[in-house]
Amino acid sequence: KAGVTQTPRYLIKTRGQQVTLSCSPISGHRSVSWYQQTPGQGLQFLFEYFSETQRNKGNFPGRFSGRQFSNSRSEMNVSTLELGDSALYLCASSTGQGAAEAFFGQGTRLTVV
Amino acid sequence: EDQVTQSPEALRLQEGESSSLNCSYTVSGLRGLFWYRQDPGKGPEFLFTLYSAGEEKEKERLKATLTKKESFLHITAPKPEDSATYLCAVPFTGGGNKLTFGTGTQLKVEL
């Protein structure tokens, strides 16, 4: 059974640009969550999508947005990149039922220069 | 607001030296508690789910336990390959799969 796939694995962008990251969840999973991980803040929740609807949202500015498609694949977008957006962005896949465990992808390492 | 605190921040053990990691939590209604292992530059790897006080789960040298206020990850006779950061997390009390993570315990096991 294939795991969670995130693309790309590495990305270098310039301040002010925008970026789109992609996540393909485990087959059959309908919930996709996104997290930002930095050495100083640890793992911070961005948002969760379930059946194409945003179900939960973290405390991030509106520059961070996401969406989910009918096949459960998800994308997150960051506009007007800032140096502080440099981080490991992780996607987690879950069945979405109750408090089911979440399985993470390998992440996308974003560097903003 | 859900809160999770892990201790110690870092732990250095000799191979075979057993120890425990702590995860204390504050939630209005516990829906579960998860343990993950994370290697540098990789995504967290799921280890255990605990749902109620008194529950225990085991996997190889690891055993996770849960009380009403905290969880412990016991590591018995660790090996160097157990070196990693161990994270615990709780799902949002309000529903869904939003997780609140602790800052983790960085474990180093030496020969």
How would you describe this structure to a colleague?
The complex is a heterodimer of chains A (113) and B (111). Chain A is globular and about 40 Å long. Chain A has strands at residues 5-7, 10-13, 19-24, 31-38, 42-50, 53-57, 64-68, 74-78, 87-94, 103-104, 108-112. Helices cover 0% and strands 53% of the residues of chain A. Chain B has no helices and eleven strands. Chain B has strands spanning 3-7, 10-14, 19-26, 33-38, 45-50, 56-59, 62-66, 70-75, 84-91, 99-101, 105-110. In chain B, the strands form two sheets. In chain B, strands 2, 4, 5, 9, 10 and 11 form a six-stranded mixed sheet that branches. Chain A binds chain B through residues 4, 6, 31, 33, 35, 42-43, 45, 48, 50, 55-56, 58, 88, 90, 92, 94, 96, 98-107, 109, and chain B through 31-32, 34, 36, 41-46, 49, 51, 87, 89, 91-92, 94-104.
Percent helix range of chain B: under 10%
The description of the largest β-sheet of chain A is: 7 strands, mixed
Strand content of chain B: over 45%
Number of helices of chain B: 0
Based on Cα principal axes, name the global outline of chain B.
globular
Q: How many β-strand stretches of chain A?
A: 11
Structural class of chain A: mainly beta
CA gyration radius of chain B, whole angstroms: 13 Å
Helix content of chain A: under 10%
Question: Biggest interface pair, residues each?
Answer: A-B, 29 and 27 residues
Poorly predicted tracts of residues of chain A = none
**How many helices of chain A does DSSP assign?**
0
Mean pLDDT over the full residue set of chain A: 96
Order of helices and strands of chain A: EEEEEEEEEEE
Chain oligomer state = heterodimer
